[in-house]
Amino acid sequence: MIEIQFWWLAILPVFFGLGWLAARVDIKHVIAESHSLPLAYFKAVNHLLAGEINKAIDLYIDIAKKHSETIELQATLGQLFRRRGELERAIRMHQKILSRRELDENQRQQIQLELAIDFIKAGLFDRAETILHDLANTDSARLARKELLAIYQQEHEWQKAIATAELLRDESHSYQLEIAQFYCELAAESLIRAQHDKAINELELALKEHRQCARAHLMLGEIAFTKGCFDLAIEHWLKIATHDVHYLALAARFILNAYREKNQLAEGISLLTRYVQQNPELDVIDLIYEQLLATTGIDAAYEFVRERLRENPSMPGLRKLLEAHLLVAPDEQKVELEIISKLLHDNTRTYSMYYCNECGFKTRQFFWHCPGCNQWESYAPIRGKSRAAV
Ligand SMILES: [Zn+2]
Predict the structure, then answer these.
(1) Residue 148: exposed, middle, or buried by beta-carbon count in 10 A (0-12, 13-18, 19+)?
(2) How much is the pLDDT for 34?
(3) CATH classification of 156-167+175-263, choosing from 3.40.50.300, 3.20.20.80, 1.10.8.10, 1.25.40.10?
(4) Are the beta carbons of 272 and 285 closer than 8 angstroms?
(5) Residue 297, pLDDT score
(6) Ligand 1 geometric centre to CA of 381 (Å)
(7) Which of the four pLDDT bands, split at 50, 70 and 90, describes residue 243?
(8) How many angstroms is it from 13 CA to the middle of ligand 1?
(9) Of 313, 323, 364, which is closest to residue 343 (Cα–Cα)?
(10) CA torsion sign, 327 to 332 to 335 to 336?
(11) 370 in a labelled binding site
């Protein structure tokens, strides 16, 4: 009898527990959420987190078909199609969402941006531009301008890129470096058309925007050299060092050429020798070595490399020394020296590449604008080193 009367005492804590839970969680909301977010949704999220895009997309397609009313799901699916490279499907999906009447203003802008990105990826820049211009006076204007800036850079529309970057600049990002580079691009185009004065004007605008723009100094030096103004050319090139001394490596060959034109090659060589004593950069060491070999002879060239190696022992330096040694070595030593030289060559290949500090792209050619990640001035101006290491 006693057991029958008091059995309910055992479940009292459960009721208390339920009361506590109900006070803290809106049960209706939980139920509604669990309906709008089926189990497959969480599975899809798990696939996404694991980087399994294709599995996630298959699940999303399934969910999106059953829940066509859910705009967020459809939008996510559109993005996933784009990531998988199915641009037509992404475009169709985003256009379909845009045709829905119940979209609020925020959602409309968001989907317009997504559609514009689809068009950019598909190379349909005109259509992307039209959408992005429509967003100019909305809350999404800044995001739209960033996409427009990307388009103008891809299309080499540098004047439009400058105007857009000027609108984008704020305390967080001045865009000085980029705008100066856009002016340099304009100047490069003017130089192709032999419009030297126009190019000079554009390079001065670059320097007005970003006083330490090494590329503008480099190009101004080249124009002065072409006009036969060798002192002015050297003056421009030496200004590069005021920004970042390592960029001088890009001008080293030009500097020597200008000194040669002035019949003062020895002065040019000693100027660059002082430079490599502080900055032992292989390209410049190579250059001086070549010049010494051609003008003064093997002994001076060999001695120069030996000095550099003593100042800064390095594998590429040793390789250079061996190359110099090979020229004067007796025949019976040459075979062994060549084997060692080849070994060193194979092991120092990384020293012959320029590296992008942003994306790690490596290349034999120096770029002001990385073809891998579209960043400006992300390459260290010397081979074998990342930007951060110089
Ligand atoms: Zn890069």
Answers:
(1) buried
(2) 47
(3) 1.25.40.10
(4) no
(5) 82
(6) 14
(7) confident
(8) 62
(9) 323
(10) negative
(11) yes
Any residues with CB less than 8 A from the CB of 59 and at least 6 apart, and which? Answer: 40, 41, 43, 44, 47
Among the residues of 25-86, which ranges form H helices?
27-36, 39-49, 53-66, 71-83
How many Å separate Cα 130 from the centre of its chain? 26
CATH ID of 30-140, from 3.40.50.1950, 1.25.40.890, 3.40.50.2000, 1.25.40.10: 1.25.40.10
Q: How far is the CA of 207 from the centre of ligand 1 (A)?
A: 24
CA distance 293 to 211: 38
For residue 143, count other CB atoms closer than 10 A to its CB: 17
Length of the chain: 390
How many A from CA of 384 to the centre of ligand 1?
A: 15
pLDDT at 88: 95
The answer to whether 199 and 190 are in contact (CB under 8 A) is yes
Asked if residue 356 belongs to a known ligand binding site, the reply is yes
Cβ atoms within 10 Å, residue 338: 14
Q: Return the pLDDT at 309.
A: 79
For residue 176, give the nearest of 223, 133, 212, 200 by alpha carbon.
212
Q: What does each C-alpha distance from 147 to 41, 81, 135, 153, 368 come to in angstroms? A: 30, 19, 11, 10, 20
pLDDT value at residue 347 = 65
